[in-house]
Amino acid sequence: MQRLARVESEAAAPHVGECVTIKVALAGQPNVGKSTIFNGLTGMNQHVGNWPGKTVEQKTGGCLRGDKQFDFVDLPGTYSLTANSVEERVARDYILHERPDVVVAVVDAAIPERSLYLLAELLLLPAPVVLVLNMMDVAAQEGIQVEPRVLEAALGIPVVPMAATKGRGFEALLDAVVAVWDEAYPYNPHRPVILPAHQTVLEELITWVAAYVPKPYPADWVALKLLEGDDEVVALMQSALPADVWTRVHDTLLQHEDAILDIAGARYAWIARMIRAAVVRPKLGQMGLTARLDRVLTHPLWGTLALLGVLAVVFWLTYAIGSPLQGWLDTLIQQGAEASRNGLQGALPRWMVDLLADGLIGGAGMVVTFLPILVIFFAVLGFLEDTGYMARAAYITDRFMHAMGLHGKSFLPLLLGFGCNVPAILGTRIIETKRARWLTILLAPLIPCTARMAVVAVLAPVFFGRAAVWVAWGLVAVNLGVLAILGIVFHRFVLKGEQAMFIMELPLYHLPNARTIGLYVWQNVVAFLQKAGTVILAASVVVWVLSYFPADGDVTQSYLAWIGRGLAPIGALMGLPWMLMIALLTSFVAKENTIATLGVLYGNFETTLPTLITPPAALGFLVVQMLFVPCVATVAAVKQETRSWAWTLLSLGLMLVISLGAGILVYQVGTLLLGG
Amino acid sequence: MVPLTALQPGQTGLIHQLRGGHRFVSRLAALGFTPGAPVTVTRNHGIGPLIVAVRETQVALGRGEASHVMVYLEDGDAAVSQGRV
User: What ipTM did this prediction achieve?
Assistant: First the structure.
């Protein structure tokens, strides 16, 4: 990871003398390698946050070169700039309202025609554009030749060839940005025009609205967006125009409802003219690497088997490497806690020593022990994502997800859930419709995360000995079964509204970039530490306080025990003593707390527990534990992403009812079968 | 004129019309599904989503979405120009 630092050493250098700042926005369609360019430009000197008021990720960063400071904003990847999605609004609003000095439009040289579409839209906005032809290496590999100079002559804007994953072209890009910024470059863009059929209408619209268009919108752009039927601009002008003018505009728009297709068609015709001389394609019939791989990987049978194989490797790597590391860290932290306890004994009151050793170090330690598993899991996922495979996985899983009213794009966040539910909830941002997104958020906590599996790994052998592996698999199956049923029920009977559209590009396969994957892991782990780390730490202190007071460490006389005894009637339905109810309750803080609590309450629970509860009760307990309300960090993530207390409480309530119901069912039926 | 779902893998059609809401049309248009553009079906297995190639890109399309994309079959061009439509 040390190699990640490249430009940032310069950026960190103190500003010397006069220094000018150039504001640069990076725009591009998804999968064109825009993140790689952004990472290459900014290195670790970047900030990841949210766009104000939106749950869309915002990345900003900078670099210093000579006497110039470059401030970069990574706009969301979008195919166009019509208000179809939040991302598209964010991208165009930034250019319109924040007025960057230069917009860098990134295009995939291997698919110039499709990816230039965004440029056709960007050239209509009031900011100069530098075009980047990225992935020149991939284009060459697919047999496509692109001539940057010829394209530059046609477009009248700077064109910079790059191979960002190989680190090529960064200097030239910064040179081009500066040249446009200080007007050394003869910037004279050749903009796309509308088809003659709509030319008159467009001019009419411009004259009607021009006087009323609010700042900072350009009138001709507004008129064009009206004609495209852009929801946001239509709403904007409806409130800005006097009633009589609006009626005229509205009637005209109704007569030209199909204009969007002609406008898009005209843009593609413009692109065809621009690239005619600049791009040479391979002869027909030549099969690229992507086509050959996809013959297997998107095949209904082989593709499904390949996906299962990939998943098996993901989990094998995660647990085979991650679990030993986790155990090793755990021992290390316990030793640390003991050492600090011994060191502080006498210097501080006993409860403060216990709070430090058990509450703080224990709580923080729990977070740390999860890092190896998460790092490995995200590294593998980042690898799959960067190669282009994830889109194929979404395609393969789409038919299974359909029954739940979801589609393949929900697969990735759900897969993330096996690592940790928190990134799964955050990962639902890639889902476009609110309905599908909220449903995925509701279902994600049913995915058994590594923490819950860790509890099963400890408890199943205690109760079931050699059958433990089968019990564990059965429990995972129960969770996925409940997830499927809940999804189908919500899709069919609860959530009204249209099904999410499944329209997804399958990008060309390419070699993954270590830097991109490294940053992906880094950002996910930091997000986990910020969200989960703080909450887990705070909550583990709270639980410690509840279990410690008022009896100074005697847990059976603590507040926690008092709550647990209150829950005894529910426990009785499941054949569980109150201590196990407490273990469940503390799992709300963090799933792995179950084990710690049993350790506190029973001491050596491995030998005592099997004598205290029956096998049906034990199985019931494991089922409840797997389906129980998600941990605090996950709940916090659900609240943050939906911004709805109602949905968050619904999610909590459902999980509570389902888990207890399932536990009672398992215990009662099991007892009946065994006893009868 | 047939929906995209009626095409077998390997068959190419020319886009004629997108039937659907304005968002649907706008999204597909941006991806290059504009009238006259050739679309080749790469995968169509009777159930589940399709994969089609349009403007040098492979795009996965849900069955519902694909059934709203109306195309002329290339070998049916003659019939089209003779005014059958």
Answer: 0.88
CATH 1.10.287.1770 residue spans of chain A: 196-280
CATH 3.40.50.300 domain span(s) along chain A: 2-181
The minimal CB distance from B35 to the residues A111, A261, A506 is found for A261
Whether the per-residue pLDDT at A155 is higher than 60: the answer is: yes
pLDDT in tens, A438-460: 999 999 999 998 888 888 988 89
Q: State yes or no: pLDDT of A645 exceeds 60.
A: yes
Q: Which domain holds residue B20?
A: 2-84
Least confident of A132-146, A256-270, A329-343: A329-343
Closest CA to A268 of B58, B40, B13, B36: B36
Number of structural domains, chain B? 1
CATH number of A2-181: 3.40.50.300
Task: Return the residue of A nearest to B37 by Cα.
Answer: A265
Are A503 and B34 inside 8 Å of each other by CB? no
pLDDT at A625 over 80: yes
A573 at interface of B, judged by CB pairs closer than 8 A: no
| Three-point CA angle A642, A648, A651, nearest 5° | 120
Q: Which residue on chain A is closest to B54 by alpha carbon?
A: A114
Q: Whole-prediction pTM value?
A: 0.82
Using CA coordinates, name the residue in chain A closest to B17: A261
Question: What dotted CATH number matches A196-280?
Answer: 1.10.287.1770
Q: Choose among B26, B45, B55: nearest Cβ to A84.
A: B26
Burial class (CB in 10 A: 0-12, 13-18, 19+), A672: exposed
The CATH number assigned to the domain holding B68 equals 2.30.30.90
Q: What is the DSSP string of A468-519?
A: HHHHHHHHHHHHHHHHHHHHHHIIIII--SPPPP-EEEEPPP----HHHHHH
Is there a contact between A261 and B30 if contact means CB atoms under 8 Å apart? no
A620 within 8 A of A576, measured Cβ to Cβ:
yes
- Pairwise CA distance, residues A55 & A50, whole Å: 6
Residues of B in contact with A229 (CB under 8 A): 22, 26
Q: At residue A340, what is the residue type?
A: S
Q: φ and ψ at A145, to 5 degrees?
A: -105, 130
Question: Residues 472 to 531 of A: which have CB under 8 A from any B CB?
Answer: 499, 501-506
Let me know: does A471 contact A622? Beta carbons within 8 Å: yes
**Residue A520 confidence (pLDDT) above 90:** no
- To test the contact with chain B by mutation, choose from A116, A117, A260 the residue with the greatest count of B C-beta atoms within 10 A, namely A260
Name the residue among B26, B32, B64 with its Cβ closest to that of A82: B26
Handedness of CA B19, B20, B24, B30 (dihedral sign): positive
Confidence of residue A674 (pLDDT cuts 50, 70, 90): confident
Could you tell me the CA-to-CA distances from A82 to A87, A539, B63 in Å, in that order?
10, 44, 24
Distance from the Cα of B82 to chain A's closest Cα (Å) equals: 24
